[in-house]
What does this fold into?
Amino acid sequence: MAGKLSIVFLDASTFGDVSLKRFGENWKCVIHKLTAPTEVAQRLQGYDVVVLNKVVLDRALLDSPAAKDLKLIAIAATGTDNVDLEAARARAITVCNVPGYAAQSVAQFTMALLLELATRAGSYGALVRAGAWEKSPIYTIFEYPTLELSGKKLGIVGYGNIGRRVAEMARSFGMEVLTAARPGSQGPLPPGRLPLDELLKRADIVSLHCPLVPQTKNLIDSRALSLMKPSAFLINTARGALIDSEALIQALRENWLAGAALDVLTQEPPPPDHPLIKAAKELDNLLVTPHCAWTAREARQRLMDEVMENILAFTKGRDRNRVL
It folds into this structure.
């Protein structure tokens, strides 16, 4: 590509403390820590490449004069739902993402959530900080029920890079792994896959790792929750809208479900009155964490390295992690 590429980062603060120095050494690079929706058009103007994580590029933006010089959208994430791909296609703008960079980080965080649901280690630690142990008449406390994972069935919905890594970790705990067929898929089931309804009925723990697409929005609704065992746990480290929030809260309140752990919500950061935030303050069988499963420093460094490689490949006319 002739000339020196110009790059703008729109939400660099979402990558944490990972250095972006190499980008400035190779290209003309402007870095914005955060970009409000009203600032996106102005900040896109004149740039060949935009790097973003959660900033939304909709059709109106991509069709506007602000994006007339844009040649590459480098999504610093795996998901692409914040970019209007059809609008980018119509403008012949290349889009690339970074699949698999956080598989290890998200998988181990998923297991941490699972272990917390099964052992309540964090809850017991909170009791000690509150002074409960000193007051116990015996040498221990039986405040929370715990269980062994060995022999339990883990149902995985979304058997990609993360789902497979979770399966490996779960098997090391002696768990049996069940995998669901892709939601909305037609035709014969792939070998070893189960219909979602059957998986929900059989699993002791269900862990979601599928993308958010029209077929998976509210995938876990009242009907799906009613199929699960009352002793089962639900974990979501994928996308908040995979679960019907109100249905989940009802299931937890009415003991259709033993517990749930969520690292993602439909709105992030959530407002104080978000139903699941309010419920997490009231229910001891609901754990909510702030979309941090992917944030191991190694994963964030890997992400930036992959974004750089995607841009380098683009400058050489090669496809790398190209979405379109």
Summary: The CA atoms of residues 270 and 277 lie 8 Å apart. The longest strand covers residues 153-157. The chain has a mean pLDDT of 96.
